[in-house]
Amino acid sequence: MRVFITGGTGLIGSAVVAELLGNGHTVLALTRSDASAQVAEAAGAEPIRGGLADLDVLRAGVTKADGVIHLAFANDFSSPEALANAVAEESAALAALGEALVGSDRPFVTCSGTPAVPGRASTEADSIPAEGPLGGRGRAVMGVLDLASRGVRSSAVRLPRTVHNNGAGGFAGVLTGIARRTGVSGYPADGTQRWPAVHAHDAAVLFRLALERAEAGTAWHAVADEGDPVRDIAEVIGRRLDLPVESVPPQTYGALGAIFAADQPSSSAHTRQVLGWEPKHPSLLADLENIQP
């Protein structure tokens, strides 16, 4: 299959590209710069120059592909305004990609986050939030899944709070970065809230399975670790960096403060049973041992 991918040179995207190429697919990768184009070429993908805001480039990429995987996001959490702009850019890109696929019966795999459900681990049957700081992303993903009624084999891979590789990535990576800057390995509230996680290479396998097998309008959970207490995550970071571990105010995390403080375990039992997905790479706590002082 010839696959057009956005975000193909990031931590998750590079793993997805390798997984696709290793299983006989060819890859067209959206690249924003000469440097990212060189990374894509070195990985074995064909670069298509442009960004998420270049809607004509996105449409052109769809015309060259048998399927689409979307992973790109600005990841600017510096302020509520910056986050809103990133969400709006992605929403417009998803709409353009989806419209270009209508009536083709081609697969369109997008990504979202696992939802938080009070009192239990969330499942694939739970809805993702359509309100709050990231509510726009939820609405855009639901729009992608609704394309199932318009001749698109659309699906969504829901990613946990931390997608990691070699000790880096996701919410845990944010904690590590803040710890290096402030000299404290912090956690919000009492640290008993749980964050799910998955290794990037395990997530990549699920993206490929969704591309190849997922029925239209379905959602899947890329969850290997159902939920590690944030305090446990901070303790590994603190030990690796030789820093004190303590609770810090939610505003330490800016626009993500409320999300960081929420208990949000998640299950992937349905995904494993239906798609035969089985994570094989190290857990988050084990992978964090790769953090270099």
TrEMBL record:
Named from the GO MF annotations, one term is: aldehyde dehydrogenase (NAD+) activity
Pfam families to which the protein is assigned, alphabetical: Epimerase
Q: Which InterPro entries does the record associate with it?
A: Epimerase_deHydtase (IPR001509), NAD(P)-bd_dom_sf (IPR036291), NAD(P)-dependent_oxidoreduct (IPR051783)
The chain's coiled-coil residues are: none
* Entries under SUPFAM superfamilies matching the protein: NAD(P)-binding Rossmann-fold domains
GO cellular component labels: cytoplasm
According to the entry, every stretch annotated as the NAD-dependent epimerase/dehydratase domain falls at 3-88
Stated name of the protein: Nucleoside-diphosphate-sugar epimerase
Species this protein is from: Amycolatopsis xylanica
